[in-house]
Amino acid sequence: MTTTSEKTQENAAPRRVDKAQYLVCAVLVAVGAFLIYDALTLDAGFAKVDPVGPKFFPLAIGVILVVLAVILAIAIPRGSVGEADAGEDVDPDSPGDWRTVGLLVGVFVAVILLVEPLGWAIAGTLLFAGAATILGSRHYIRNIVIGAALALASFYAFYAGLGIPLPAGILDGIL
Amino acid sequence: MNNFDWFLQGLSEAATPMNLLYAVIGVLLGTAVGVLPGIGPAMTVALLLPVTYNVSPSAAFIMFAGIFYGGMYGGSTTSILLNTPGESSSVITAIEGNKMAKAGRAAQALATAAIGSFVAGAIGTVLLATFAPPISRFAVTLGAPSYLAIMVFALVAVTAVLGASKLRGAISLFLGLAIGCVGIDFLTGQPRATFGLPQLSDGIDIVVIAVAIFAVGEALWVAAHLRRRPAEIIPVGRPWMGREDWKRSWKPWLRGTAYGFPFGALPAGGAELPTFLSYITEKRLSKHKEEFGKGAIEGVAGPEAANNASAAGTLVPMLSLGLPTNATAAVMLTAFVSYGIQPGPTLFEKEPLLIWTLIASLFIGNFLLLVLNLPLAPLWARLLRTPRPYLYAGILFFAALGALAVNVQPLDLALLLVFGLLGLMMRRFGLPVLPLIIGVILGPRIERQLRQSLQLGGGEWTSLFTEPVAIITYVLMAILLLMPLVLKLMHRSEETLLIVEDDKDQKEKAEA
Amino acid sequence: MIVIGYSADPYGRAALEHGIAEAKLRQTTLLVINATSGESYADPRFAQSGEVHDVEEHLASCGVEFELTQPVGVDTADELLTAMDRPDAALLVIGIRHRSPVGKLLLGSVSQQLLLECPKPVLAVKPA
Fold first, then answer.
1. What is the pLDDT of residue A106?
2. Which residue has the higher pLDDT, B230 or B471?
């Protein structure tokens, strides 16, 4: 029985080594190491009633993260592959349009930097219109119009409805 | 006040015009996102978490519950009318449902799905109302060691049982636990992992994480892999069913509910397994076996009922124990935390009106879904013509809005981006998302329980194992972890079982 | 060669009929393009397999030499203009619908873009 299942598995999934997964290992090690380092800087606490102390959890988690990174690093060259998320709107066969993702990240960073000086009304418009354009919509005017409508509507809605003042930026006083 | 009195009170609360409005918004929104591919109820609830800042808890939860149930309805609509399912739990419905639609029986398929969902939802909610309070009452009597054991069990169950790779489940889980460490240590007051930033002393806001992982991560991932080829929609009029269809549907509805509810209530049960079981059962019991694969109505009725019953089931551990078993429940829990309500067994004691209002509104929402969706089904199909750039730009917009609304500081946007990229990474490398979120939510609570238990036990580690429930739970956990090894030793690995199921699926698809 | 901009609606079918008539008249071949940007999850103008089959049968029965392509993920107007750049392309046939000025601003007008930008003759038809 086991041999048949092995054969079926090998026929079903040709072994490919997905080296990009080392990125995951790197992240795991980085987070784990940080946790361990940070935990070691803590005071022990009241050891009598709290034998665990504040250090235990982060230390344990950090150590396990590094261990997992090692296990993963060993499993990768043996063909271990995580099945990429096949959501409903995803075309799993296409290689991955990372340029689009990079541009979106760029727009996001711009918004982060600009939201306080320029205000949400402008930054939100930039975010929506920019994202829509990057994702393929070529109706530039329409994108900006919709973005501005959303940004302004949400600005007022949050202020009047939820009592949350979003940054007004340079339009402070006008809005 | 006994439970039924509380239920009536809840019903009167839920029936207020304001709350009814929220219920309607919730179910409409839920159906819409269920129909649209790429967006799901979990993401929608995450994006709507900012409303919890100014809306009453009952209104917010009524809306979220509506979204939750609505998502199921919307998903089945898409799976029947399109050749691809709208929600992963609707995959089975798509097998027979789409065939029925292609054969011109879309109206019947939609009708049986909608009515079956209603029946299952109603029964499921009744079961929820019956079982959740006693479970919660029992759980309250448990001491800290037992509760700790249960939480750890839930963690392990979600990580180790769901999904193919335990390694990756563990990676997700520990990343989540790591994120949960950020903040001030509750016992000694020292800042941990806060990078020296005072804004992080309360920990990373759960809203930001939920929105980042579910919304931004998903949007970025879809952006990288946008489907280009449009799918075919089968046009349909109003759903309705003939007498014969009713006769053939009602038993599958009940059987489906019976499958779905227990699986939903168990941690790591999920909705895929009961729908699959329901399909196989209906196929075996059907008097019209030859229709399966070409559009048998039982193949839609059973799985859809199982789907909705499972959704109701997941609310049992969430409300009675504070344990989330799927993504949407996890996000709803963060809403509880956001309101300062402590989810857990004490919920029924401390906030009875809120809980019973929620349960009552589930009934109302379920009914609304039936009433709204039967006539509106063709309309939902038109929603699919929305250009995707606007959909995903909108998601990013609302995600940023939500994150900013938490504390009005750009730092949260930066965190949103960082964790959004984490979400992207996880989807690229097949790391399941649910363990991470559960790790973030349960991690600090587990740590708190652990240290408090030890405090109460005078610092002795053995005190963790003193209560019978704790011991039983740890034993169960050990069994759960060791079971795959045991099965392998018995020459029947899980993978073989799954491959057999897969082969069956493939054969059926080939015959179709 | 005559290029037809096809869509799975009455306008596209009108273009197809007129295109066939012209091809017979000029004794030339047909290139039928049914493009979609793939922007939406569902595009009702994109012909699905059943319709494609019907169109191909119809074209075959008319005795005209034809080619039917369905490019995905492209801009419809650009695709048609590129096709018209081919040296043997003589005429572009499209079905047009009425759009108000506001409609054109908000929703765009592929037909207007084609009419104005195509260097070769364009035949704009409406359904009967």
1. 92
2. B471
d(CA A35, CA A20): 24
Choose, out of A18, A37, A80, A85, the residue to mutate when testing the contact with B (most B CBs < 10 Å): A85
Where do the structural domains in chain B lie, given as residue ranges? 3-231+240-466, 467-512
The CA distance from A127 to B396, in Å, is 8
Q: Which domain holds residue C112?
A: 2-125
The answer to whether position A2 is within a domain reads no
Domains identified in chain C, total number? 1
Question: Is the domain of A109 the same as that of A166?
Answer: yes
- Domain containing A105 equals 98-171
Asked whether the beta carbons of B235 and B378 are under 8 A apart, the reply is yes
Check residues B233 and B283 and name the one with the higher pLDDT: B283
The residues pairing with C124 across neighbouring beta strands, listed in sequence order, are C94
- Cβ distance C41 to A89 less than 8 Å, yes or no, reads yes
Tell me the chain C residues in contact with residue A139 when contact means C-beta distances shorter than 8 Å.
108
Q: What pLDDT digit, counting tens, does each position of A127-166 carry?
A: 999 998 888 777 888 889 889 999 888 888 877 766 677 7
Q: Do A68 and B401 touch (CB under 8 A)?
A: no
Most C CBs within 10 Å, among B83, B228, B380, B382, to test the C interface? B228
What's the total number of domains in chain A? Answer: 2
Contact A137 C105 (CB under 8 A): no
Nearest-CA residue of chain B relative to C47?
A: B232
For residues A21 and A67, membership in a common domain is answered with yes
Structural domain contains residue A69: yes
Helix (H) or strand (E) holding B192: strand B191-192
pTM of the model: 0.80
ipTM for the complex shown: 0.82
Residues sharing a CB contact under 8 Å with residue B373, sequence separation 6 or more, in sequence order: B31, B73, B77, B114, B380
pLDDT at A86: 61
Neighbours of chain C (3+ CB pairs under 8 A): A, B
